[in-house]
Design goal:
mainly alpha, globular
């Protein structure tokens, strides 16, 4: 198998980003992460009533192995003699794109923003449970706006930064690492709950997800800071954005959430936008700032879009520079 050079790996990442921007998510039938989800469902439906924690470990390891094997198979096929370089690039980019989703992260925010603007609160209450784990039946417009902003900023790490971080970190086997991470992330979203019937079944998956997102969650503060600085220079219409308050809030409030990771991107976003984010009865981030408004959903979409762009560009640059250093 031919070992891809750093230029190839960086180009795959940039092509994957282009596919995401211009085409969005592939159909479910040909979406590799959907395949992983179906495998998880098979294990979940076959789970025994006893020894569920041990079964959860075995389930997670099998799903990670399947995902890693999928990533490796793509690399193997792309490196076969006779495969045109363009086809190899597109194949790897398509599968890498499936591990992250900028469009998919921001589209729900735009949809909910439209419903809130039109005061269709019942529709928002219907949609929000897909994206946030809280009772939405009694949420006010302010709390709904906060929930959307929290979801976008938290999922920036899990849905964008972490997959490309592991792709960058593992070099020629980056696609394998990105898929292994995506398996854990998908497991966490499907069974990683602290309530029954998933408390024991998803324990290993949830803890693994915490470990794998630990570094990217803290790195996210840097990209949100850079995005806040950029937005503050380029956009004056939607409200002041503060890079300084972004880092200040992350340091002060980053550990106030039950999750060891989600607080950092959310707190950084709260400071950058100058808004208070609150999950009733659980946490308040940026307590000294005014409550969120509906317009802040557009602001967070802009902020996270810029942060995502910086993340992709930075990872591509790191891949290229690391390759140059190793092979001058």
């Amino acid at each position: 198998m031919i070992v891809p050079d750093s230029g190839h790996l960086a180009l795959v990442l940039l092509l994957a980003a282009a596919i995401d921007i211009f085409f969005g998510e592939p159909p479910a039938a040909v979406h590799p992460v959907v395949w992983i989800g179906k495998l998880i469902n098979v294990f979940k439906n076959a789970a025994p009533q006893t020894h569920r924690k041990a079964y959860g470990v075995a389930m997670a390891l099998c799903c990670v192995f399947f995902a890693a094997l999928l990533g490796y198979s793509v690399l193997y096929i792309a490196a076969l003699p006779g495969i045109p370089r363009v086809l190899a690039l597109l194949l790897e980019a398509y599968f890498l794109k499936a591990t992250f989703a900028v469009n998919c992260l921001l589209s729900p925010a735009r949809e909910i923003y439209g419903h809130l603007e039109a005061n269709r609160l019942d529709k928002v209450r219907e949609l929000l449970p897909i994206y946030v784990s809280r009772n939405t039946s009694k949420l006010t417009r302010i709390q709904m706006s906060s929930a959307v902003i929290e979801s976008v900023s938290e999922n920036y790490v899990d849905g964008i930064l972490s997959p490309i971080f592991y792709y960058t970190l593992f070099g020629e086997f980056g696609l394998v690492a990105a898929y292994a991470f995506k398996a854990i992330s998908t497991l966490d979203s499907m069974v990683g709950y602290k309530t029954e019937p998933y408390r024991e079944l998803g324990y290993f998956s949830a803890k693994s997800d915490d470990v794998l997102n630990w570094i990217p969650a803290r790195i996210s503060v840097i990209f949100i800071l850079a995005a806040a600085f950029t937005v503050s220079l380029l956009s004056k219409k939607q409200g002041k954005t503060s890079p300084f308050n972004s880092i200040k809030s992350a340091l002060e409030d980053g550990m106030k959430t039950p999750s060891p990771n989600s607080g950092y991107p959310m707190a950084a976003t709260a400071g950058a936008l100058g808004v208070k984010l609150e999950k009733p009865g659980t946490y308040i981030l940026g307590a000294l700032y005014p409550p969120t408004e509906v317009k802040d959903i557009k602001r967070v979409s802009q902020l996270i879009a810029v942060a995502s762009g910086f993340s992709l560009a930075a990872c591509a640059a790191v891949i290229q520079l690391a390759g140059t250093h190793l092979h001058p």
